[in-house]
Amino acid sequence: MKKNSAKILAAAGAAFMAACVSIPYSSQAANSIEEKPLAGLTLSIDRYCATVLENLKEDAEQARKEAGSQKDTSDNNALVVLSNVSEEEKKEQEEKEKRIKLNLKYDKLGIADVDTYLNVRKSGSESAKIVGKMTKNAGCNISSVKNGWAKIQSGNVKGYVKAEYLIQGKKAEEKALRVARLKAIVKTETLNVRYLPSTDSPVYDQISEDEYYTVEKENLTKEYMKSYMSKHCSKKTVNSVDEEAMYDDLENWAMLSIDNEKVFISKDFVDLEYKLNRAVTIKEESKKSSSSSSNRASGIVSYAMQFLGNPYVWGGTSLTHGTDCSGFTRGIYSHFGYYLPRTSAAQAAATRSVSSSEVQVGDLFFYGSGSVSHVALYIGGGQIIHASNARDGIKISSAYYRQPLKIGRVM
User: Residue 289: in which H helix or E strand, if any?
Assistant: First the structure.
C-alpha cells in the first residue's frame, strides 16, 4: 500500500507543480448556436489541485493505519523522486511559456469564451452580416471596445464580436499559456508528408500553406520511433527506410496530427510556433442558379454550420454530442432526406465524381492515402466543414489543406 501511495504522491505532485494558474469556467455565447450542455465538467486547476491534496492526505492516513507504527523509508524516497521530477517538469513548463509568449504577439489579447463558436460581424450589431467565426479558445487582437462590442482581428478576419464572450487582460494571457498549441506553418505551396521520418519513406499525402497543422511530437527519439513502428507500421513501410540512418536524422523531423492520423514532416520546410486558433472567414459562394437543387445545397450548408465547434468522437453519429467525419456528413444529409452509407469510403463509392472546376456547395471532399479515410462537406469559397479529430472537433478548413482523392456529388 505504501508503494502505491508513493506513486500517487509522485504523479499528483508533478501535476500540482506544473499547474500555475486557474482555468475560468466558460459560459455559452448567446450569439453562438444553442446546444444542450455537453457531458462532462471542466474543473479549474486550482480546484483540481485542492482535490489532489485532499486525496493525498486521505491516502497517507490510510497508509499509516495499515502500516501501524512501522517506519518505512519508501515515502522519503518518493519525496526525493517527486522533488526531482517536479523541478524537471517545472523547467520544461517555463521553457514552453517562453516560447508561447514569444509566438503570441497581440497588443491586447482576447480569447473566445464559448462552447461552440462566436460570430464575427461586419459591424457592432446583431443584425450585421457575419464575416467570420471564432471557435472555442480562438485568439484575437482587440483594438477597441464600445457599447458591448469589441472590434477585433483574428487571422485574416476583421470585425466585431460581443465583448462579454471574450476573456481579456491578465486572464487571457494566463489562458493562452494553457490552450496555445504547437503548430507547423508550411513555407512552401505544397509539401509532402510521410509515413516515417525519412525521405525514403513513401509519401502519405501533400499539405498546403493554407492551414496550420498540429504538431503531435516535436522531438523524436529512437526509443519512441521503435515503439511507434511496432504498433502502427507494416513491415513493408519499415523496410522502405534505412532505420539507422533515420534514427541519426530524427532531430530534423516532427510528427504531425492531420485529422485523426499521424504523419511525419521535415522541419526544413516548416516553422514550428505556438499558436492560438484563428477565426475562420465565412465566404459566401455566389449562386450559379436559382434551381431547387442549388437552394437545397445552401440549406444543407447552413444546417451544417450550426454544429461548428461541436466534438469529434470516433465512431460517433451525434451532431451535438460527438461524431466522426462520415457520421457528420451522413447526419447532415439525412436531415434533408438523403441517404449516405456509414463510412467515408462507402460514401465515396456512392457519390458521382466531379472535377475541381465543377465543384458546388454541398459536394463532398474525400481524403486519404491511397484509399479514402476522411470526408468533408464543401461550404463554398474554397472551404470545407468537417469533423476533424478529438482535439479540434467540427471545424472549417481550406478544401485543399490536403490533396482530395475525390470530389463527390450527392444530389
Answer: none
pTM of the model: 0.76
For the cut 50, the answer to whether the pLDDT of residue 39 exceeds it is no
Point out which residues pair with 144 in neighbouring strands.
151
The alpha carbon of residue 38 and the mean position of all alpha carbons in its chain are separated, in whole angstroms, by 17
Q: Cα–Cα distance between 158 and 54 in angstroms, integer?
A: 47
What's the CA gap between 374 and 394, in Å, rounded? Answer: 13
C-alpha grid cell, residue 21: 494558474
Please check whether residues 342 and 300 belong to one and the same domain: yes
Residue 345's alpha-carbon distances to 313, 340, 350, 389, in angstroms, are: 18, 11, 9, 18
Q: The domain spanning residue 118 has which CATH number?
A: 2.30.30.40
The pLDDT value recorded for residue 95 is 87
Among residues 152, 180, 208, the one where a domain terminates is 180
Residue 152 near residue 158 (C-beta atoms within 8 A): yes
d(CA 100, CA 45): 19
Q: Rounded to an integer, what distance in angstroms lies between the CA atom of residue 185 and that of residue 135? A: 20
